DNA sequence: TTGAGGCATATTGCATGCAAACATCCTAGA
DNA sequence: TCTAGGATGTTTGCATGCAATATGCCTCAA
């Protein structure tokens, strides 16, 4: 048995992992697998299988599970091990509400503290994203999109804010990806991103906050429909990843 | 050698820990020790000492360190183990900014969704807190105070919000405690809490948000002064706990 | 006296072994 | 046929041993 891996090659065992950070790297790998939907929600993860696949022993893997449990990606039941947590549309909505709140905090500060370099970096990412949009590269578009939001939050120069925002974004990433598959959303999202960029350039904190909020709410409307559609298709099974 | 423990008896080794959740319980114990200031910021934690003190082996302790690292309470350096992280006043301020943002999200929702039972529970806690205030029981007062804020956030019925709020509160708890030792702050804080309770009772989301915000900013002003005073006393050593 | 190098000890990182809990399958009795 | 119970294999939880790394100490040369 093996857990599928769409994001990395399946060539087999890892070479050698550096000593000292094995659990961290393992956590990163497993996190990627979960976020990419390689391991379906609700799946119980067998330690032996994953240790063989990753080429590490159980100790660093179990430490990685503790990290991922803290991030809300897996649940650890006594004597039953780690299970990939499934998130309901309601929970995704709750998390998005939090992300909006965090971006609201970021908005004012970002407009005060963003350096011209940071804004230029975001403009560069925006151009890349538009390019990906025009080429129809969904995955790339989606990835850059997420990066832009993270960079805006980073502009606030608040490490706590950046850390929490990154963790929560990662936790619901695979569900939001579902919403972004609707290509009719793209054009609107690109337009909204231009508004966001304008507000940041003009350093209008209150405006930036409102534009970001509207952007997320509009995106969530689409995502929710997709998720609920998939849920009813799946007939109350586990939530699908990005199939 | 032994790490002091003001919060629990020092009678020595633990009895037996239940199988299946040892790392969780160990994490709780160590978290308590850090939050209470029993282990000073900047201290490198020796695994052997702590395993002997807690009566568990290194494996669950090391898993507990991973949990606490995720919470931002310790830092794990390769081949050097876990160190209690010290937080600068700037970082505490950044975290409080985030907490204010999270409470802002909570405020509107709490006023929509709080059940009468939840409000009654908060009123009960408030009465207890006033009682502790009148008896001069600082630790108890502080603890109930924190619980009230958590309960208000819980009223929003947003699990993500509650989880993040709890984690961030814990991370900076010992620093805020320093600010609350100024007893002249107590009277004002109790008054502000009454305003908070009123806003919640009347389900005035916007008002609740503003009152909470003002409450935190006023508290932070005192805390910052205390922290900066202690910092200069300590002459750029590690941040003191609750000495 | 100081500092570089090297040896001895302490400490951490990880793999592994063993015991407890769990899961599965089989059988006996109703 | 169905179910209780138990035998057997599987999986997890934890302790421990070994190797790698860090740390402290000592020596010796400049």
List the helices and strands and how they pair.
Two copies of one chain form a homodimer.
Chain A: H1 22-35, E1 44-45, H2 47-54, H3 58-70, E2 74-77, E3 81-84, H4 89-113, H5 116-135, H6 138-154, H7 159-180, H8 183-201, H9 205-233
Antiparallel strand pairs in A: 1-3, 2-3
Helix pairs in contact in A: 1-3, 4-6, 4-7, 4-9, 5-6, 5-8, 6-7, 7-9, 8-9
Chain A binds a DNA duplex (30 and 30 nucleotides) through helix 3.
Protein name (chains A, B): GntR family transcriptional regulator
InterPro entries (chains A, B): GntR_C, TF_FadR/GntR_C, Tscrpt_reg_HTH_GntR, WH-like_DNA-bd_sf, WH_DNA-bd_sf
Keywords (chains A, B): DNA-binding, Transcription, Transcription regulation
Q: What's the short version?
A:
The structure is a homodimer of 243-residue chains. Chain A is mainly alpha-helical and 243 residues long.
In N-to-C order, the SSE pattern of chain A is: HEHHEEHHHHHH
CATH top-level class of the largest domain in chain A: Mainly Alpha
Greatest chain-chain interface? A-B, 34 and 34 residues
Q: Helix/strand-derived class of chain A? A: mainly alpha
- Looking at this structure, what is the CATH superfamily of the largest domain in chain A? GntR ligand-binding domain-like
Biggest sheet of chain A, open or closed, and with what strands and sense?
Answer: 3 strands, antiparallel
- How many domains in all of chain A? 2
| CATH fold descriptor of the largest domain in chain A | Four Helix Bundle (Hemerythrin (Met), subunit A)
Oligomer: homodimer
């Amino acid at each position: 048995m093996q857990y599928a891996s769409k994001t990395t090659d399946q060539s087999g065992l890892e070479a050698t992992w550096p000593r000292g950070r094995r659990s961290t790297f393992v956590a990163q790998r497993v996190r990627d697998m979960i976020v990419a939907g390689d391991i379906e929600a609700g799946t119980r993860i067998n330690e032996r299988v994953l240790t063989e696949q990753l080429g590490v022993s159980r100790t660093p893997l179990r430490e990685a599970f503790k990290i991922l449990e803290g991030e809300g990606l897996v649940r650890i039941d006594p004597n039953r091990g780690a299970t990939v947590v499934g998130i309901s549309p309601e929970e995704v909505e709750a998390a998005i509400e939090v992300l909006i709140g965090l971006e609201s905090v970021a908005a004012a500060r970002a407009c005060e503290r963003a350096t011209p370099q940071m804004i230029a970096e975001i403009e560069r990412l925006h151009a890349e994203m538009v390019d990906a949009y025009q080429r129809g590269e969904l995955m790339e578009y989606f990835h850059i999109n997420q990066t832009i939001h993270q960079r805006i939050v980073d502009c606030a120069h608040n490490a706590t804010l950046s850390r929490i925002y990154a963790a929560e974004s990662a936790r619901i990433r695979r569900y939001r990806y579902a919403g972004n598959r609707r290509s009719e959303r793209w054009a609107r999202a690109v337009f909204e991103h231009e508004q966001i960029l304008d507000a940041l350039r003009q350093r209008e904190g209150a405006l930036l906050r409102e534009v970001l909020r509207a952007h997320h709410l509009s995106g969530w409307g689409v995502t929710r429909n997709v998720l609920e559609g998939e849920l009813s298709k799946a007939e109350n099974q586990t939530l699908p990843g990005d199939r």
